Amino acid sequence: MARGMTDLGSSDRLAAALAHLGTTIDARAKEGDASTSWTAKLLAKGPDACAEKVHEEGQELAEAVMKESDDRVASEAADVLYHAFVALRARGVSLNDVAAALEKRQGISGIDEKAGRAG
Question: Per the count of CB atoms within 10 A, which of 2, 32, 102, 116 is most buried?
Answer without folding.
Answer: 32
